[in-house]
C-alpha cells in the first residue's frame, strides 16, 4: 500500500519510486514560482523530504523557514503547512512517508529517544547529512528500490536523532529572501570559484553581515555550504557516472586533488576511490 498522500497541484509532479512495510518514497518536482500563491495543505503520514535542488519557504505551526538544497523538511502526521516560492521558481525533493509503527521501530534503536514527533520542522544543510544526500541522488538516478529502503531507515534515524537536539531560533522573514537567493546562486554556480565577496555583492549585503546571516539561517557558513554541494556532486559522479577520481574532483569545482581527497574522506569516511568501487 502506498502511504504517500496524492498531490493535486497542477505545477507539482509526484512519482512513486518504492514502498515497503510502513514507508514509501516519492520523487516530487515542483515548478511553482513567485506568481503562485501558497495555500494551506495537511501532511498525511509523517514526512521527511530531502531537498535536492531549488529552495522554498516552508510554513508550519513552528514558523517560517527557508528550505534550501541539502535541507530536510520535517512534517508530523496531520500537521498543517504551506510552501511558497516567492524567492525563486522550482524545487525537487525526495519525500519519505512513514507510519507511526515504522518510526517507533527506528526510535527504539536510538538511546534516550522517547517521542516520534519531530520537534523541529527543518534540519538545515550540515556535513552530517551530506552522505545521505549523495546516497539519495544516486538511488534516485538508478531507481534502486533496495537502496531506497535502506535510505528510508537512515533518513528516519538521522531526522529523529538530529531534530531532538536543541532547537535553533526561527528565521526572520525579512532575511529569508536574501539567503534564498544566495543558496540558489551557490547551487547553480558551485563549479565556479565563488567567494564570499561575490555572493554578498549579488544579494546586496556587506561581507560580514552576509556571513553572519547565512550562518544563522543555514546552520553552516557559505563556504561549508559550497563544499558540501561540491562533495555531493562529486559523489554522484563517482558512483553513477563511474568517472575517475580526478574527473570527479575537477568537474565538481575542486582545483586540487589532494584537497578533494582529504575533504571527501573526512565527510564520507572513505577515499573517493573506495566510494567509487562500491555499489
UniProtKB/TrEMBL annotation:
Keywords: DNA-binding, Transcription, Transcription regulation. SUPFAM superfamilies: Homeodomain-like. One of its GO terms (molecular function) is DNA-binding transcription factor activity. InterPro entries: AraC_XylS_family_regulators, Homeodomain-like_sf, HTH_AraC, HTH_AraC-typ_CS, Tscrpt_reg_AraC-type_HTH. It comes from the Bacteria. Signal peptide: none annotated. Residues 180-278 form the HTH araC/xylS-type domain. The keyword Transcription regulation applies. Pfam families: HTH_18 (PF12833). This is AraC family transcriptional regulator. It comes from Oceanibaculum indicum P24.
Amino acid at each position: 500500500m502506498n502511504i504517500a498522500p496524492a498531490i493535486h497541484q497542477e505545477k507539482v509532479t509526484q512519482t512513486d519510486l518504492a514502498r515497503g512495510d510502513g514507508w514509501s518514497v516519492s520523487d516530487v518536482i515542483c515548478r511553482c514560482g513567485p506568481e503562485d500563491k501558497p495555500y494551506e495543505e495537511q501532511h498525511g503520514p509523517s514526512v521527511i523530504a530531502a531537498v535536492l535542488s531549488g529552495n522554498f519557504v516552508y510554513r508550519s505551526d513552528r514558523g517560517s523557514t527557508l528550505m534550501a538544497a541539502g535541507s530536510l523538511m520535517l512534517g508530523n502526521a496531520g500537521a498543517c503547512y504551506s510552501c511558497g516560492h516567492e524567492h525563486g521558481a522550482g524545487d525537487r525533493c525526495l519525500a519519505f512517508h512513514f507510519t507511526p509503527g515504522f518510526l517507533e521501530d527506528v526510535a527504539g534503536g536510538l538511546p534516550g529517544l522517547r517521542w516520534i514527533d519531530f520537534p523541529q520542522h527543518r534540519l538545515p544543510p550540515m556535513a552530517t547529512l551530506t552522505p545521505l544526500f549523495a546516497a539519495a541522488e544516486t538511488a534516485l538516478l538508478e531507481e534502486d528500490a533496495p537502496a531506497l529502503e535502506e535510505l528510508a531507515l537512515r533518513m528516519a534515524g538521522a531526522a529523529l536523532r538530529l531534530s531532538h537536539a536543541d532547537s535553533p531560533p526561527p528565521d526572520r522573514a525579512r532575511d529569508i529572501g536574501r539567503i534564498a537567493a544566495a543558496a540558489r546562486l551557490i547551487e547553480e554556480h558551485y563549479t565556479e570559484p565563488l567567494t564570499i565577496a561575490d555572493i554578498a555583492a549579488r544579494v546586496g549585503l556587506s561581507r560580514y553581515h552576509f556571513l553572519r546571516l547565512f550562518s544563522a539561517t543555514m546552520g553552516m557558513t557559505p563556504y561549508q555550504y559550497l563544499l558540501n554541494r561540491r562533495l555531493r556532486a562529486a559523489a554522484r559522479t563517482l558512483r553513477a557516472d563511474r568517472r575517475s577520481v580526478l574527473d570527479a574532483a575537477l568537474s565538481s569545482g575542486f582545483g586540487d586533488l589532494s584537497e578533494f581527497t582529504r575533504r571527501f574522506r573526512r565527510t564520507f569516511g572513505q577515499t573517493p576511490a573506495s566510494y567509487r568501487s562500491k555499489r
